[in-house]
Structure formats: C-alpha cells, structure tokens
Fold this sequence. Notes:
It is a single chain. The protein is 22% helix and 17% strand. With 503 residues, it is of the alpha/beta class.
Amino acid sequence: MTNKLVLFGAASLTGLAAVQAQEKPNIIYIMCDDMGYGDLGCYGQQYIATPNLDRMAAQGMRFTQAYAGSPVSAPSRASFMTGQHTGHTHVRGNKEYWPSGGRIQYGNHSDYARVGQEPYDPNHKIIPEIMKEHGYTTGMFGKWAGGYEGSASTPDKRGIDQFYGYICQFQAHLYYPNFMNRYDPSRGDEGVVRVLLEENIPHPMYGNGYENRPQYTADLIHQEALAWLDKQTSDKPFLGIFTYTLPHAELIQPEDSILLAYKGHFCKEKTYGGDAGSWYNPTDIAHAQFAGMITRLDKQVGEILDKLEEKGMTENTIVIFTSDNGPHEEGGADPTFFNRDGLLRGTKRSTHEGGIRVPFIVRWPGTVEAGRVSDHQLAFYDILPTFCDIAGINGYPEAFVNKKLKGDCFDGLSFYNELTGKPQETHDFLYWEFHETNMMALRMGNWKMVVKNGNCMLFDLVNDIHEDTDVAAKYPEVVQKMKEIIHAQHTNSDLFKVTLPTL
Length: 503
C-alpha cells in the first residue's frame, strides 16, 4: 500500500517501460453529468436501455469501487484535472461568478454577461497541459467549469487545442440556451468566444414556447466532438475530453424516437412544476425524460466507439466512461424510482457512497481484458498519473510540481497496472470534503468515515454498504486514526470552509 501521508506518489516503472516500447495510445475520457452508480444496465439498472455502454463494459473492464473527486460538479472536475483531492485542490465547490457580472440582451432575453466558476490555480499543471506538452492533440467538448469567461483559467489558456461547450456549469443546466462557448483557432478564434444560438433566441427561455427552441446542446456538443474525432489521424496521438451534460437537469430533449420509446411506458409518471429561478422548465413526464436522456447518452457513446472502429483506431485508443458525481434530484429527477443509487446511501452533494461512488468503465481492446470486473479502489485524482503511464510520460509527479507554489502536490496513484493485469499498488486511503453540506469523508480499506458538521460516523462497507449502522463507538482506535489522517490531508481554504473533527 502507498503511504498517502506523503504528498507525492510514484508512477509505475513497469507500466512506463511497457508503454515506451509502443506507439503512444490515444485517450478518450467521457464524463457525463449526475449519473448514479446504478443508472446503467451493466450496473443493475432494469428500466433504462443502455446497450452501448453495456457492450463497452463487456468489451472492457467495469470498476465497482470507483469514486468521483467530489459530490458536485466543479470540484469533481478539478480533482480529475489537477490530480489532487479536495483537501488540496484549489477548487472545492461551485463558486459562481455570473450573479455579479451584469447582463446582456439577446433579443427579448436578458442573459449573464460573465459566466463561469472559480478558476483552477494557473500555477498548478493540469491534465491537458501535460498531455499537450508531450505531443498530444487535445480537444474538449462539453462542460468546462474550471474558470469564468476572461479568467486566467479557460480552455484556450490551459492546454486545450479546441473547445466547444459551456464555460459555466450554471449555463449547462439549460439544453436550449441562448449561446455556447467555443475555442477553435481554425475558425479564427483567438480565445474563448460566445456562439449565439440564433434559432433559439426568438423563443421564450421559460414557460410556453420554450419547446419551440430547436438547437439542443447535447446534440450540438456531440456533433462537434465527432467532427473533431473524425479529423484525428494516426500521425499524432490525441486526448479527447468529452464532458457531456446528459443526464443533468433540466429534464428535456427532442421528442424523437428515443423519448417516444419511454413516453407512456411507466405506470407511475412524475410531474414537475418548474423553477423559473433555475430556468428548469416544467414537465409532466419526468421519468420518461430522464430515461430517454440516459439512452440518448448511451447512443452517443456508441457513435464514438463506432467512429473509432471506422477510423481503424479501436485497438490504439483507450476509452473511459464515468460520471462526475452521484444522482441528482433537481428538475424533477427521481432517483428512488429508478433505484439510481444502486442501493447506496445518499445522492449528489453527499459524501455518503451514493454521492461519490460512480460507474467507471474502461475499454482498450488487446490491452484491457474483456469482461473483467475490478474492485480496485480509485478516485478521480488517480486519472492524471494513469494518463501519464498510458502516454509513457516520465517523472510524475516531481516533473510537474511547481516548486514556487506553496504546498503544490499531486495525490493520485496510477491504476495502469490494474488495467493491464499486473500487480496493482493500492491506496492507504481516499479523501473528500465538501463545504456546501459541511461534509467530509475518508475511506481506509473497508472502513468509511463520514464527517458532518464536525461529527464522525464510521461504517463497515463490507457488511453495511448502505451506511446504516454507525460503529464509531465500537472502534475508537479506528476513528482516531482516521481523524488524524483527515487533519493531515486538509489544507485550509478561505473560499471553501469545512468543520474538521476534533482530535
């Protein structure tokens, strides 16, 4: 086991040697939004069709103990990008910049003049910067949530060669918005720009008439991603980061064959009255909408896999699919109806298992054994060192640490060996904190500590996966050890404050 009280881990020398002997593989990382652990057929879902993701799992490896970086969007993405857990990374919550930035008029609609979230620390290297420096073409399509428009941390400034999607995760709640963001030098962009959705603007943003907006961003993002993928060649490796927004609220989509297959399908439907403040429009078929959004996402994943096959890139491309956190209840979503938590306690915003344990599927034909199920414990901050191993990038983490940035570090542990069937080093612990609900969590082997408002609960996940029985009083020595780890791993943040347990 690795000693995570030491800030630096070590890349697998065995893995590096293996990769250096071959052509650098391509990498596609697909991270959807707010999908629960139990939302896919291959994870036990019985009501929603996911044939392509089930096929991907059958052709690759399905992880049963994979964890997001955080129970909400922005810090979870930060953990992935930075290779840091939320006790170290700068972005630990959904700090917004749109409320104070003024307004812009688009036709009859007023929209925010500045959108986005707290920026990633520009002094700490993130995944696309590392990969680009080592010869990879980088494209990102979907949600950014790593800075606001005009900040020091936008895709064009952080190693992304081409971007299309949402800078702002609040804007990403809308599937028929007024504009999208783009960075594409081939179209003359010198930085991130706004692209007006001209066909949407004439119609209302909320209420009657909203359904007449025709430009559906989940489709637009996917089309841009496919077009970018189609341009890639075998001459240069590529990293595609596809941060698709499905199935996040709002619950809406085109009324095509996908939705119609579920409309009227459920004996018990759910109505939702809308929320004008969040711009979530009403729906009287929330169950059908949600199921259709999952299936729509599944179809898009299938088209990505088919594109790789068409281009003859299947065996030299590793594809990863996951979700940024657990299931949501916004916009009329109903996790209980779909058993979306996969028998796990908690949803989005909770550091219980349901808020952070996520589906995680890896396909790499010829390298990753088909049909394998892994119980290796990993978290999003492990992805950066794993990408380094896959690409044969030497020197992680020392090569990327900024010695001028106080406390700069990386927390991840490569799981490359797990993918390739070699002996895999394991974490001593995994760590989370989230200021909005004042919660923390630590997993140490089969022990799980959840801290809320400074109060500790201890669970034995082997015998109590739903975290129903607090056994803290029975194992005080375990509690004390885990408290000490929490105190050692947490660095203070003026922006995102949590209450630590007393020692």
